[in-house]
Design goal:
This protein has 346 residues and is mainly α. Helices cover 74% and strands 2% of the residues. It has a two-stranded antiparallel ribbon.
């Protein structure tokens, strides 16, 4: 292997690592706020990629029916929760708007946009708008009823949600793989390297997303509420922060980040309904290396994961997945030796 090949491998690793960084940050966010190890994060990547590819091909994505179905089920859960707690008419109206009206409006917009060839920017925005509400609706259905359960119980629930979403993905999107056209045909030469417009789009969108998340957490009231919930859930509740809303917001951000990641991946490889699981696991490796707590460390770890994957695909392509997932073993061993294990109280 000469220096030119090494540069190409590093470039490919950084491109993949940028996407893993987004997923890792989303996983850290969800875990910090809700204690949920969000295994289904990869499904949002697959759904986002398939939705974007279908819109680009002029077809109405099955996401609209998935969103509408989730909205109806979430509304039933909201009504049941209000009956138990004696909710007011205002809460019922809010649930109708969030669970029924918003998904219906998005379905109508998607039906009007599909087939009109309005451009990649419109399809990008519509894909995020369709996928992001799935996060809060999923939280209402699967996680909010057991929000006080142990981390192990929430992990088991995540496995069940992942399996359910894979089945729903097969039903709504089919078994056929899809690939979207590149966002740009630009080609930039940098010495021996040729950087494609798609790679530049990945770098730019990832950087913008990370900066936007940083500004959200540092400058906005909602972002500070999420940070407070992550630091001390009970304390946040005592000072008036609605932790249920924090969980809903965290899942919405995670779904939006997953949609953006899927759109970035769609022109780079063929995506199937179950492809997101493997991509999400690599983001999970980065999150584990970051201790499921540090966003900067998670982003740096994601770039390392992408680089190791790229190098492993050159030297041992059959074993590259094993090499990538083995990265967490020394981290887990080091943390187990450094930290004293404390049994979780019931």
């Amino acid at each position: 292997m000469d220096g030119t090949i090494l540069l190409f491998l590093v470039q490919d690793g950084i491109t993949n690592g940028a996407i893993y960084a987004l997923l890792g940050i989303a996983l850290v966010l969800v875990f910090a706020v809700t204690r949920v190890i969000f295994i289904p994060q990869g499904e949002f990547v697959a759904f986002g990629a398939l939705t974007y590819a279908l819109l680009e091909s002029g077809r109405l994505p099955g996401t609209v029916w998935l969103l509408a179905g989730f909205g109806v089920v979430a509304f039933v859960f909201d009504v049941a929760a209000m009956r138990r707690s004696g909710g007011s008419g205002r809460r019922l109206v809010a649930a109708m708007v969030a669970d029924l009206a918003v998904p219906a409006a998005l379905v109508a917009v998607a039906a009007g946009v599909a087939g009109r060839e309005l451009g990649a920017a419109t399809h990008f925005a519509l894909t995020v708008a369709l996928i992001a509400p799935l996060g809060p609706l999923l939280y209402k259905i699967a996680y909010r009823p057991i929000a006080g359960a142990s981390v192990l119980t929430l992990l088991i629930a995540s496995v069940g949600v992942h399996l359910a979403l894979v089945g729903l993905g097969l039903f709504f999107f089919g078994a056929e793989g899809l690939r979207a056209p590149a966002m740009s045909s630009l080609m930039v030469s940098a010495g021996p390297l040729i950087i494609t417009g798609q790679s530049i789009a990945v770098y730019v969108v990832t950087l913008v997303a990370i900066v936007a998340l940083w500004l959200f957490f540092e400058r906005s009231l909602w972002g500070k509420a999420l940070r407070a919930t992550a630091v001390n859930r009970l304390g946040a509740r005592l000072v008036g922060i609605r932790t249920d809303f924090s969980g809903t917001l965290a899942f919405g951000l995670a779904a939006g980040v997953g949609a953006v990641s899927g759109i970035l991946v769609a022109p780079m490889t063929t995506i199937y309904y179950d492809t997101g699981f493997l991509i999400g696991l690599k983001g999970f490796v980065a999150a584990i290396i970051g201790g499921l707590a540090s966003h900067p460390l998670t982003a740096a770890a994601a770039l390392a994961v992408g680089s190791v994957e790229s190098l492993a695909s050159f030297f041992a392509s059959d074993l590259k997945e094993i090499v990538v997932f083995s990265l967490i073993l020394p981290v887990l061993l080091w943390r187990s030796l450094k930290h004293v294990h404390v049994e979780e109280e019931d």
